[in-house]
């Protein structure tokens, strides 16, 4: 849950978001290893192994969410910087206009023409809003999915396992 705090940290604060996620990941793996060494060794996966495994997946999900948000923010910054370098009525030549994914490969506007400053500003705002939308959705989706996992996990290990033990 601590890694979800990064959804509320500013999208431009890359070091803060990355360090929070990696610190959470390292802390969880250290706690998991310490707990596993304290338990007797068995050849099968224990309930705590599943718990820590899913928690690790959630932290990796936070890192993937950050990568997506960072990608959108980099695109927004690129278009914003290009727009700031142009006058409002100038057109942007396609030989300088780059593809979103590869900065070395030239790419024309989607219509094959030129791109003006309002188009660049629109693209910057579009990617900035998309990054914000991903963060806002993640603020709700990650806790909701984790709550669903908790219900399934605890139902299985408290109800289902107890019922199996009674019939054995």
Automatic annotation (TrEMBL):
Cited Gene3D superfamilies: Neurotransmitter-gated ion-channel transmembrane domain (1.20.58.390)
Transmembrane segments annotated in the record for this chain: 50-69, 140-158
Residues covered by the Neurotransmitter-gated ion-channel transmembrane domain: 1-85
InterPro entries on file: GABAA/Glycine_rcpt, Neur_channel, Neuro-gated_channel_TM_sf, Neuro_actylchol_rec, Neurotrans-gated_channel_TM
Recorded GO CC terms: membrane
UniProt keyword list: Membrane, Transmembrane, Transmembrane helix
Keyword Metal-binding annotated: no
Molecular function terms from GO: extracellular ligand-gated monoatomic ion channel activity; transmembrane signaling receptor activity
Pfam family, one: Neur_chan_memb
Protein name: Neurotransmitter-gated ion-channel transmembrane domain-containing protein
């Amino acid at each position: 849950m601590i890694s979800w705090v990064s959804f509320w940290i500013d999208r431009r604060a890359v070091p803060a978001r990355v360090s929070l996620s990696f610190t959470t990941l390292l802390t969880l793996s250290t706690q998991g290893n310490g707990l596993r060494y304290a338990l007797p060794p068995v050849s099968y996966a224990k309930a705590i192994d599943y718990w820590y495994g899913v928690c690790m997946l959630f932290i990796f999900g936070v890192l993937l969410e950050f990568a997506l948000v960072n990608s959108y923010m980099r695109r927004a910054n690129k278009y914003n910087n290009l727009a700031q370098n142009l006058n409002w009525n100038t057109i942007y030549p396609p030989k300088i206009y780059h593809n979103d994914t590869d900065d070395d490969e030239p790419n024309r506007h989607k219509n094959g023409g030129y791109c003006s400053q309002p188009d660049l500003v629109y693209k910057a705002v579009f990617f900035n809003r998309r990054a914000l939308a991903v963060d806002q959705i993640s603020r709700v989706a990650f806790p909701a999915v984790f709550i669903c996992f908790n219900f399934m996990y605890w139902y299985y290990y408290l109800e289902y396992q107890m019922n199996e033990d009674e019939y054995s």
